Amino acid sequence: MTDDAKLAAQSTVSASGRVAGDAGAVAAEAMRRRRRRRLLTYAGRLLTLALIVGGWQVLTDVKIVDAFFFGSPIGIVNRLVDWAEHGTAYGSLWEQIWITIEEALLGFLAGVASGVIFGVALGEFRYLADVLGPYIKVVNALPRIVLGSIFIIWLGLGMSSKVVLAAVLVFFVVFFNAFQGVRDVDRNLVANARILGASRLQITRHVVLPSALTWIIASLHVSLGFSIIGAIVGEFLGAQKGLGLVIATAQNTFDANGVFAAMLVIGILALSAEALMAQLERRLLSWRPPSSAEIADAAVT
Amino acid sequence: MGVATGAGRPTADRAPGGIELRGVTKRFLTPSGASMTALRDVDMAVAPGQFCAVVGPTGCGKSTTLTLVSGLDRPSAGTVRVGGQPVEGIPKGIGFVFQNDALLPWKTVLGNVVLGPMFRGVPRREAEARGREWLEVVGLADFAGHHPHQLSGGMRKRVSLAAALINEPSILLMDEPFGALDVQTKAIMSNELLALWEQTRPSVIFVTHDLEEAIGLADRVVVMTAGPGTVKAVYDIDLPRPRGAVQEIRFEPRFLEIHHQIWESLRSEVGRAYARTAAARAPVGGQA
Ligand SMILES: Nc1ncnc2c1ncn2[C@@H]1O[C@H](COP(=O)(O)OP(=O)(O)OP(=O)(O)O)[C@@H](O)[C@H]1O
Ligand SMILES: [Mg+2]
Fold first, then answer.
1. pLDDT value at B285 more than 60
2. Does the beta carbon of B202 sit less than 6 angstroms from any atom of ligand 1?
3. Is there a contact between A195 and B95 if contact means CB atoms under 8 Å apart?
4. pLDDT the model gives residue B281
5. Contacting A residues, span 210-269, partner chain B, CB-CB under 8 Å
6. What is the pLDDT of residues A198-247, one digit of tens each?
7. Torsions phi, psi of A87, nearest 5?
8. Coil, helix or strand for B177?
9. If you write DSSP's letter for every residue of B204-271 in order, what string do you get?
10. Which spans in chain B are helix H?
11. Which whole number is the average pLDDT over A119-142?
12. From atom 30 of ligand 1, which residue's Cα is the shortest distance away?
């Protein structure tokens, strides 16, 4: 190496070293700024909540808003404590919650299983899709909540009518996504699997299903919410136990605090279900490249 | 980098077979409903164990030819034979490296390489042992647990190559397998491919845009015309085998002579294809 070349090499090394140092400082600064923004966001959210709940309480205290119709935060908490200690009119609060969870969960599982099976079958067999397509569209066009009434007539006031209603709501969401997912499979991947010697069944199992899984899992988020809605609306229409019945009773006795208290419980339920689902999604789709939002998240935490 | 040995590998579906296309025409329906001829009256023959390279301008139907030989699609007219049998469905013992790599994104690199043996019912342990051998051959032993999106384009290409070769095909179709590789890796992979080919002697159709690569590797170079594709000329390459390092043979006088000859034939087609796609822009430069 000539002296000139050595010199040039050295200068590039030191230059790149400086660049790396700068990059580190820039990254640290960016992270600090992001952390600060995040803190501010949380503070803002907390403040908003305090304002709404506090304002509500104050407005009812000074009788600008009638607590009889609109309830009040303290009233809601008292109602919840009362339910937790003395139970609702239909047994303990925990029993009502558990019944609703059970109905939603069973309906969710049944709906997902049948939705995936039918979606994949119709996606794989074009003839089946052509024959059954119009009927599925008709049933899908019905406002499915009204099916709840029919299920209660058929299956009675017990859990099964709610499970079926939740399952029907879930089925259509999952079905359409699974169907679309199967139709969306990369033809190139299927061709490659065929060349490598895959049978039809192996193609379904190793290529079509995993590929459709992205779509199916995207639908599970919505479906989980639908299963809870199905269970509660079913209970609302006619039941012997469950959170929906608790709401219906509170409504009939003009107990606004009771309605809000049950709503709060349902909200917490739905949010926890959502969090669990996000966890499951991350596990099942671990092969995917992380989206840029996820990368940003990981950098901050 | 060592060549995986053939010891203990099943060779059941290796029927030594040549490839033969007779009067093959392929038409496609365009989105507007009209019929478009991609291949017209193609005659081509690859003897058993022969290495045949196909060059031609872009869009002339090289990939289409390979799909017809692989049985993934059928010709509109004419016959395609593999191992003497007319192609119906996927012929036995065929291997195909696609132009766009077709790796399953949800499987790891190793998972993708062992797909072939797995589909054929080879026990998992044995399949994975063979898969690792092949990853060694393509220089990706350290990436067995990665997912395809974590690899570079060239690395993905090499995984596809391993996935096709692990089945020990007797007919090997390759659609620009080294297109995404840098010059050095390309040289290494070419040498590796030649060594493997000399060992198991599959019949090969190797599509490429790189004429030097075609001459360096093949027994025979087929030049296709601009679309609709037909065979314009066939050149038998009489460079001695084993060829040794592909990157060195390029400087031998005989190589240059052949190269010059084929390039004359190819460049007018490339020029025509270019003139057609860029019809609005005139005139086409003389070098093309
Ligand atoms: N499935 C298809 N439907 C309609 N047209 C097609 C289809 N496949 C290929 N073609 C057309 O056939 C012609 C030949 O395509 P092909 O992919 O075989 O070209 P190629 O020689 O492989 O080109 P390249 O070198 O760019 O890969 C093109 O004009 C293309 O538009
Ligand atoms: Mg092509």
1. no
2. no
3. yes
4. 53
5. 210-211, 213
6. 999 999 999 999 999 888 988 898 899 999 999 999 999 888 888 999 99
7. 80, 165
8. coil
9. EEEE-S-HHHHHHH-SEEEEEPSSSB-EEEEEE----SS---HHHHTTSHHHHHHHHHHHHHHHHHHH
10. 62-70, 109-113, 115-119, 124-137, 153-165, 183-200, 211-217, 246-249, 253-277
11. 89
12. B59
CB neighbour class for B28 (10 Å; exposed up to 12, middle 13-18, buried from 19) = middle
Residues of chain A contacting residue B107, judged by C-beta atoms under 8 Å apart: 287
Check: CB of residue B221 under 8 Å from CB of residue B255: no
Q: Where are the domains of chain A?
A: 71-300
Name residues whose C-beta falls within 8 Å of residue B278's C-beta, 6 or more positions apart in sequence.
B284
| Nearest C-alpha in A relative to B103 | A189
Pairing of strands B220-224, B19-29: unpaired
Q: Which CATH number fits domain A71-300: 1.10.3720.10, 1.10.645.10, 1.20.58.220, 3.40.190.10?
A: 1.10.3720.10
Q: Determine the Cα–Cα distance for residues A88 and A170; give it in Å rounded to an integer.
A: 29
Query: Rounded to 5 degrees, what are φ and ψ at B83?
Result: 60, 30
Ligand 1 pocket, mutate which of B27, B62, B74, B101 (most atoms under 8 A from CB): B62
Q: What is the ipTM of this complex?
A: 0.84
Q: Give B133-161 pLDDT, tens digit per residue.
A: 999 988 899 999 999 999 988 889 889 99
Q: Report A:145-204 residues touching B (Cβ under 8 A).
A: 186, 188-189, 191-199, 202
A242-293 tens-digit pLDDT:
899 999 998 898 888 999 999 999 999 999 988 988 888 888 887 777 655 4
Q: Which of B25, B28, B42, B207 to mutate to test the pocket of ligand 1 (most atoms within 8 A of CB)?
A: B28
> What gap in Å lies between CA A227 and CA A270, rounded to an integer?
10
CB B134 within 8 A of CB B159: no
Cα B29 to middle of ligand 1, angstroms = 12
Q: How far is the CA of B254 from the centre of ligand 1 (A)?
A: 34
Considering every ligand atom shown, identify the ligand nearest to the alpha carbon of residue B209 and give its number: 1
Number of domains in chain B: 1
Beta bridge pairs of residue B53: B206, B221
Which is it for the CA torsion B112, B117, B120, B122, positive or negative?
negative
The minimum-distance atom of ligand 1 relative to the CA of B57 is 25
pLDDT band, residue B52 (cuts 50/70/90): very high
Does this model's pTM top 0.90? no
Which DSSP letter does residue B26 get?
E
Residues of chain B with Cβ-Cβ distance to A198 below 8 Å are 115, 119
Q: What is the domain range of residue B224?
A: 12-55+209-288
Output the CA–CA distances (angstroms, integers) from residue B133 to A261, B54, B114, B117, in the order listed.
Answer: 64, 30, 11, 13
Is residue B213 a part of any domain in this protein? yes
Among all ligands shown, which has an atom nearest to the Cα of B224? 1
**Residue A194 near residue B72 (C-beta atoms within 8 A):** yes
